[in-house]
Specification:
15 strands, 6-stranded antiparallel β-sheet, alpha+beta, 285 residues, 8 helices, binds pyridoxal-5'-phosphate, 9-stranded mixed β-sheet, globular
Amino acid sequence: MSRIAYVNGRYLPWREAAVHIEDRGYQFSDGVYEVCEVRGGRLIDERLHLARLERSLSELRIAMPMSLKALGIVMREVIRRNRVGDGIIYLQITRGVARRDHAFPAAGTMPSVVVTARNLDLAGNERIAAEGVAVVTVPDNRWERVDIKSVSLLPNVLAKQAAREAGAKEAWFVDRKGFVTEGSSTNAWIVTREGEVVTRPVDNGILRGITRTVLIEVIKAQGLTFKERAFTAEEAYGAREAFITSASMIVMPVVRIDGRPIGNGAPGLLATALRRDFHRHAESA
Ligand code: PLP
């Protein structure tokens, strides 16, 4: 089946889906994106993802090019046309096409909108979760506004590649004080020996993950002890469990950090239970 992409008002076959070379996303990474999970053909936590999209756009002073309702219709049409059952939808909005000049283009320049979707190998992901993944740490060398979900992802790209080359699935960024900020495309969590579930507070140093937001509700609903505080890589090495969260990975147990086994070196009980329970709390529409 050939894939279809939505590009600036049109549903195009994959081969024809393109943006102009002077698109500011291409020239300057001047744009934002969202990734939403699709499960059983339905969007997971759409409302929260679109609220974050609006915030990212507003922080960068990019106009929202269409209503959220219209965007919801486009997203569902892309899911339908690509026959996505379980997968992800990707949404990108840039400041549009204009003659290359760093400053903002003339008022009225239309932002560019691209929406794509694809199936994920759900069974394969479950097998990965049953084994757990390895993480390596890297210095956090990103700018100070990583709370904006911008397409400017070069440090994340390099960090993920460093992880791949070390045989790991994810890289955790560590700030100058030695505290873990987040993964290159995930939020970072530990469970302490005392059973506290810990993740870094949301400030400008991390992206406010939607999976993170919903998982905090799951953790509280289950009566688990939750602490929003920074933790170091050393604390993580000695933790009972560690895991990462994102829309495409849900809750993924971490079994090694920088080559050191976490807990008994197998996926943690809590992480596994939270993965199982996540969708009971997520919104599906
Ligand atoms: N942190 C970063 C840097 C990310 O890129 C992502 C997702 O892409 C996340 C965290 C997790 O966010 P979400 O749970 O909304 O997918």
